[in-house]
Design a protein that fits this description.
The chain has eleven helices and 13 strands. It has about 325 residues and is α/β, with parallel strands linked by helices. The longest helix has 16 residues.
């Protein structure tokens, strides 16, 4: 399967302040705050839902097509993704804007002050999926992830117009979208991804019941945190897959992206929904054990050993050949 992943491309600049923000704030001067914090360290991490998902698919041996907009400072990030199996040929490079970034400082009480710069992400709305399809010889599935909201709507409408199957995955952008936009993004999707909280928010904002939403999509895929994932389809018994046991819970950031990467890769292998979900859950486990969203290493023998322990010999035999 030729799978394109649309979504934000960003870097995170994370700093740590050894003191407390509260100690620096004067109650009667909050209307004129002017502060500078001397931080101990700076951690720059690659991120954005599009690259996070594509990186995971590349780790599993796939060649996902990243679709999004980045700035003229993207060269180093592009080289990293290229080395890890991601097709970056459809990334739009802005001539005037930096790649989107999140800048955040955390104090010793874990309070945070952060800013998100949209930057080149706003140009994602200028990308036409037909050009992507023509370049790679057609598309079998497009995952429409959290990105510039206008881009998400345009990609969805283009998929419908051109009869390209698509997966709706609006995640963090759901907070700023209204019911009409959410209805537009999910109606007719082959897959609808969300976590449990987002599931309830989708129903609340659209005014559609769970059954009504399920009737409008091919499959509803709901991640359940530590309980794994549930996959539903009209007329079928729901499929529930648990998580593989983790060695440590280091950082939950990017776990959902990793699940999607494994699930989509499993679909491309043709192993079926349950096996695809198991691959996704196993990959998500690797991410929760690692600090950062693209800092893990997939060692195939270790992956299969843990996969077998979690899901059994029959499941392992069906995916083993794809990870040789």
């Amino acid at each position: 399967m030729r799978i394109a992943v649309t979504g934000s491309i960003a870097t995170d600049h994370l700093m740590t302040f050894p003191g407390r923000f509260a100690d620096q704030l004067v109650a009667d001067q909050l209307h004129t705050v002017s502060l500078s914090f001397l931080v101990d360290n700076l951690d720059v991490r690659r991120g954005g839902v599009g690259p996070n998902i594509c990186f995971g698919m590349g780790q599993l041996g796939g060649t996902p097509i990243l679709v999004g907009a980045a700035g003229y400072d993207f060269d180093e990030y592009r080289a990293w993704l290229d080395r890890h199996g991601v097709d970056t040929g459809s990334v739009r490079i802005s001539e005037v804007l930096h790649t989107a970034r999140f800048v955040c400082t955390t104090d010793k009480d874990h309070n945070q002050i952060g800013s998100f710069y949209t930057g080149a992400m706003s140009e994602a709305r200028l990308i036409e999926l037909k050009a992507v399809a023509d370049r790679v010889g057609g598309l079998d599935l497009v995952l429409i992830g959290a990105d510039d909201p206008e881009a998400m709507l345009r990609h969805t409408e283009e998929c419908r117009t051109r009869d390209i199957p698509f997966a709706a995955d609006f995640s963090q952008q759901i907070a700023r979208m209204d019911g009409d936009e959410i209805r537009t993004l999910l109606d007719g999707a082959t897959y609808l991804f969300s976590n449990e909280y987002e599931k309830g928010l989708i129903e609340s904002k659209t005014g559609w019941t769970d059954a009504e939403i399920l009737s409008r999509v091919g499959h509803r895929v709901t991640t359940l945190g530590s309980r794994g994932v549930r996959i539903e389809r009209v007329g079928d018994t729901p499929i529930e897959v648990g998580c593989a046991e983790e060695t440590a819970k280091v950082d939950p950031t990017g776990v959902g992206d990793a699940f999607r990467a494994g699930f989509l890769t499993g679909l491309s292998w043709g192993v079926g929904l349950e096996r695809a979900a198991q691959v996704g859950c196993m990959l998500a486990t690797l991410v929760i054990e690692t600090l950062g969203t693209q800092e893990y290493t997939l060692r195939r023998a270790n992956f299969m050993e843990r996969f077998t322990k979690a899901y059994g010999d029959e499941a392992a035999s069906e995916v083993q050949s794809f990870l040789s």
